[in-house]
Amino acid sequence: MTTCKVCEDPLTLQVEDEETEQLQSVPDDLQLPCGCHFHWQCLLDQSTEVAISLKCPSCGTQLAANAAGPSATNPFPHSSPNVSIPTRYTSEGGVDENLDILPTITEEAYLAVNPEARPARAYHVMCAEGDAEGIIELLRDAEQGDGEEPTMAAPQLIRYQDPLANMKSGLHLAIERGQEEVVWLLLWMASTLPTHAFPEAAMQAAQAVGIQRLDTSPSEDVRALKDGRGRSAEDVAAEMDGVWTALLQAGVLHPRA
User: Any idea where the domains of the chain sit in the sequence?
Assistant: First the structure.
C-alpha cells in the first residue's frame, strides 16, 4: 500500500458522514511529478522548504521548470504562467489530473513567515468580492486585537499590498472587480478626498455603521499606492473601458484630489 512520504500513514482522510455522523475514509492522495505521494496537509506543512527549493521534500527531485531562484530580497520565487508544479490529486471529490500546487505552496510559505498577513489577504478577498460588511468587521477586530494570530493595525490592513499578487492593494482589486461600494468605503477610511466629494449614499452607509474617517496624510492616501507595474488605482480604472468614467471625470481617484 502506498503511504504518505511524511507521516507514512495510508493516503486517506477520516471525515464525518453528514447523514450517519460516523467517520468514513476518503482518498487524500497528492502525487508529485517525481512520483512521491503525500497527504495534502502533509505537503503544505513542508511549504517553506518546497517554495524555496522547488524540490520534492522526500526525494529531492526538481519539481518545476523555468523557475527563477530565490534571492535575498525575495526568498520565494514569483509565481508565473511559465512556472508550475503539476500534480495528480485524488480526493473525496474525484481525481484532478493536472492540479498546479505551486500557488498554494507559495501562499502557505509566505504566511508561515508572515502570519500577520493572513487577515490582510482575507481583506483583499473581501475587497475583490465586494464584501463591505466583512471588511468593516475585519478592521474592527484588528483594532480590538481579537483573535490569537498576529495581525496588522487597521491603517496597515487598508494599505496592505500583496507581494504574491503583483503588489496590488485592496483598492486596486476593488477597482478591477467593479466593486463601487468598497471603493467608496476605502476612500472614506483612507484618503484625503474631501467629505463633500462623497455621494450622500456612501456617507450615510459609513455613518450608519459608525465608520469614522481616519487621519490620513497625503503620503498615506490609499490612492497613491502603486502596484508592481507602477499603476495607481486611478490608472487601473482608466484601463477599464468606461466602467469608472464618472469617478475618473470627477477626479475622486486622483491622489491629490
Answer: 12-111, 115-250
**76 — pLDDT class (breaks 50, 70, 90):** low
Name which CATH class applies to 115-250. mainly alpha
Question: Smallest Cα–Cα separation from 187: which of 171, 199, 176?
Answer: 171
How deeply is 229 buried, as exposed, middle or buried, from its count of CB atoms within 10 A (0-12, 13-18, 19+)?
Answer: exposed
pLDDT value at 72 more than 50: no
Write out the H or E segment, with its range, that includes residue 42: helix 40-44
Least confident of 26-35, 63-72, 128-137, 177-186: 63-72
Angstrom distances, CA of residue 210 to CA of 22, 136, 155: 46, 10, 16
C-alpha cell at 214: 481616519
Burial category of 157 from C-beta neighbours within 10 Å (exposed 0-12, middle 13-18, buried 19 and up): buried
Residue whose C-alpha cell reads 487597521 in the numeric block: 154
Cell matching residue 29: 492522495
In sign, the C-alpha dihedral spanning 234, 188, 183, 156 is positive
